[in-house]
Every structure is written in structure tokens, then in C-alpha cells.
Specification:
The protein folds into two domains: 6-179, Flavin prenyltransferase-like (Rossmann fold), CATH 3.40.50; 189-395, Rossmann fold (3-Layer(aba) Sandwich). Helices cover 32% and strands 25% of the residues. It has 13 helices and 23 strands. It has helices at residues 19-29, 48-55, 73-80, 91-98, 105-111, 125-128, 131-142, 168-179, 214-225, 253-264, 306-312, 330-340, 381-395; strands at 6-11, 33-38, 83-89, 116-121, 146-147, 151-154, 160-164, 189-194, 199-200, 206-207, 229-234, 246-249, 269-272, 279-281, 289-292, 295-298, 300-302, 319-326, 345-350, 362-363, 366-369, 372-375, 379-380. The chain has an eight-stranded mixed sheet, with helices on both faces. Helix 1 (19-29) packs parallel to helix 2 (48-55) and helix 9 crosses helix 13 (381-395). The two termini are 28 Å apart.
């Protein structure tokens, strides 16, 4: 995913420095070229050899270290970097960078670095909220630095509060979002639905389906990584919502219909990947419930067709992508939906195809447009999401 990309990690004097060894390992696993620059204080918490063993590059500490191939090292690394992340970032180093002080290898290199800079503060709660530190953080934001919000919990000294550096997976997602994909959806508002709606029968039982929400979550994550402003309307899912998206949690098909239609007019791309329950118990005064031994039949009514409503009310230049899961005649039935729902794209798959369907991490999709169809091979849902977005990106005006 990050092959050909270079990430510079700046590590400062904080107990959280030990987490960055795992972040470096995670980046290398994604085929990224990783450089680590440490402050002298950071070496009291983790040995530079640890990083060198993981990244296969010399870990830099001393600005005047002569034990490397000749070049102006801080300038050379600055030119290579696609992103520079300082994590953990101490109050001291935040203050230096915010005020243009470059007196060690880390601060000198970041000053010479033209790429995106990400700062992850990590310190005591009271120190974090010192007005001077907060002022310096705001200065960095104004200079275009991205600030990772600290976590709340137990700190190194046993106090409770914010100031903890987030987990390595969170820091990794900041880096992936910044450099992993072309930002071909930048400036576009994307709305994605995901998960299985639930229709209450009574306070205990409900009607639903087997959707895990994995495909919809993959679509939302792929869109945000490609620069889109993403809103996720999420029913019941087996996976968490991705970072950097606005999430609207819903339960029923009616909830989802209302959430989607409220946002539809201000959205450039709508991707309906949720598996909406087609029927809901007919809740009215004359509802008939018949019991026969242990069997119960319930009068049902159809839920609103979200995709059809969107197609009927589609605004100019808006792109609508729907999903179609079939058990037979997949292509014919899905092509009919493309027309009847007035969609731009239908992503079709078969419930009986191995590796496709509900709950899996893979999918086998046929992308259908008015110009024809393209069958994708078995791939992960993350990969499939990007293939679908490739088609959408080409359709954008």
C-alpha cells in the first residue's frame, strides 16, 4: 500500500516512545521506506538500535554525526519525505517547532521539510492544558500542521486525563490517509450507507438480515482515503466505522431513509451499500396476530425504497451507486435495477458465489453502468471498494 513512499518519524522524550517501534514495523510491513529521527532525551526511553533493526536505516540523533554517507543529512531526508510525523511530541519540541527553533536533528529536519507534517502530542494532562502549550499547538495548526487529538485515560504518573498518545493503529491511519492514495475525490461530499436495518416486532424481537456492513464500511474508508468528505449512515454492523468520517447511527429502514434524504441534496456521490430490511411489522390498531401452536404470523408492510427515491430525486451531476445481491440471473436482474432505480452504477454479486455475500472479507462484484459491465475477480472488499471508486471518479464532471 505504501510502496515507494517515505515516512519520517520524529521521536521525542516521552514514555510513549516505545509505541513508535511498532508503528515503524507496521509501516515497513506496508513496504514503506521509514526514517527515524530521535531527540537525545528520547534515547533514554528507547534505544536507537531498536528502530535500526526494524527499518534497516540509520536512526539519526546527533546533528553532527559523521557516521553516514556524505550529504547534508537533514536536507536529504527532508527532500525524500512524503510525510513527517512527530510522535510522541513533547511540549518542549512542540514549542521549538512552533517558534522556529532548530537546535537538534529533529527540529532542523522538520524545518527543512516541505511535505505534510503531523504532530501527536503526548504529555501530562496539566502540561497539555498549559495556555502556552495550547497556544503553540494552535500556532502549528495555523502553519498547516495536522494535530492528532490525544487520548483520555490513565497517564504515566497515574493521573486520569487527556494527554495520552493514541494507539499505533490510529497514527498509522493518519499516515495512510495522507499518502496512500491519489486524492481524486478531494472536495467531493460522499454519503455511504452500511449495515443491516432492524424492524421491531415488539420490545424483544426484530426483523433483520445477515449483512455485516463490511462492504459499506470499506467504501466509506476508501472514499475518505481518496480525499472525500464522507458521511456514513450506519445501521447494525460487525465492524467499526472508519476514522475521519461523520457517522450517523440508525436502527430501522425509516431511520435510514430519513438520514439519507436529509443529506442527499448536499451530496455529490451517494453509495447505498446497506442491506435494508424490505418489510417491517405493520404497527396499527387493527394489527392481526394469529397464533397456531408455536407458530406466529405477523402482518407486514413494505419499507420505503431508499435507492428508488434517490434515483427519482437525483440532482444534476449527482452520482448514485447501488448494490444488488441476487441468487439467480444476477446480471439481468441487476441491469433492470440500474434502469428502474435510475442509478449510475449497480454493483452486483451473487449470494451463492464462493467468497462473495454476507459476512466475508472478500467479494466478487460485477460493476454495471449504462455503458456495459465489468466483472471483477475475487478480491478483498477494500480492493473492491477502490475499483468501484475508480469507476465513479471517471464519471465525475
Amino acid at each position: 500500500m505504501l510502496k515507494g513512499k517515505t515516512v519520517v518519524l520524529g521521536v521525542t522524550g516521552s514514555i510513549a516512545a516505545y509505541k513508535i517501534a511498532n508503528l515503524a514495523r507496521m509501516l515497513k510491513k506496508l513496504h514503506c521506506n521509514v526514517h527515524v529521527i530521535m531527540t537525545q532525551n528520547a534515547t533514554n526511553f528507547i534505544n536507537p538500535i531498536t528502530f535500526e533493526s526494524l527499518i534497516s536505516n540509520k536512526c539519526l540523533v546527533d546533528t553532527f554525526d559523521r557516521n553516514f554517507q556524505y550529504s547534508v543529512e537533514h536536507v536529504a531526508i527532508a527532500k525524500q519525505a512524503d510525510v513527517f510525523m512527530v510522535a510522541p511530541a513533547s511540549a518542549n519540541v512542540i514549542g521549538k517547532i512552533a517558534n522556529g527553533i532548530a537546535d537538534d536533528m529533529l527540529t532542523t529536519t522538520i524545518m527543512a521539510c516541505p511535505c505534510k507534517k503531523i504532530i501527536s502530542p503526548a504529555m501530562n494532562h496539566n502540561m497539555l492544558h498549559n495556555p502556552i502549550v495550547q497556544h503553540n499547538i494552535e500556532k502549528l495548526k495555523n502553519f498547516g500542521y495536522e494535530i492528532v487529538k490525544p487520548d483520555t485515560g490513565m497517564l504515566a504518573n497515574g493521573d486520569l486525563g487527556d494527554g495520552r498518545m493514541p494507539d499505533e493503529s490510529v497514527l498509522l491511519e493518519y499516515i495512510i490517509k495522507e499518502i496512500a492514495f491519489e486524492k481524486d475525490l478531494s472536495g467531493k461530499k460522499v454519503l455511504v450507507t452500511a449495515g443491516a436495518t432492524r424492524e421491531a416486532i415488539d420490545p424483544v424481537r426484530f426483523i433483520t438480515n445477515h449483512s455485516s456492513g463490511k462492504m459499506g464500511i470499506a467504501m466509506a474508508q476508501a472514499a475518505v482515503r481518496r480525499g472525500a468528505d464522507v458521511t456514513l449512515v450506519k445501521a447494525n454492523t460487525e465492524v467499526k466505522a472508519p476514522m475521519f468520517v461523520e457517522t450517523i447511527d440508525v436502527v430501522s429502514a425509516e431511520d435510514m431513509f430519513n438520514a439519507v434524504t436529509d443529506r442527499a441534496d448536499e451530496t455529490d456521490i451517494i453509495i447505498k451499500a446497506a442491506a435494508v430490511s424490505d418489510y417491517t411489522p405493520k404497527l396499527c390498531a387493527d394489527q392481526k396476530i394469529k397464533k397456531a401452536d408455536d407458530d406466529m404470523s405477523i402482518e407486514l408492510k413494505r419499507t420505503k425504497d431508499i435507492l428508488k427515491h434517490l434515483g427519482k430525486n437525483k440532482k444534476e451531476n449527482q452520482i448514485i451507486c447501488g448494490f444488488s445481491m441476487e441468487t439467480q440471473n444476477v446480471l439481468i436482474n441487476s441491469q433492470k435495477k440500474l434502469v428502474s432505480k435510475n442509478c449510475d452504477i449497480i454493483c452486483a454479486n451473487s449470494l451463492v458465489t464462493e467468497g462473495a455475500g454476507f459476512g466475508t472479507n472478500t467479494n466478487v462484484i460485477t460493476i454495471i453502468t449504462k455503458d456495459g459491465h465489468k466483472e471483477l475477480p475475487l478480491m478483498t472488499k477494500d480492493e473492491a471498494a477502490h475499483c468501484i471508486l475508480d469507476v465513479i471518479a471517471k464519471m465525475m464532471p
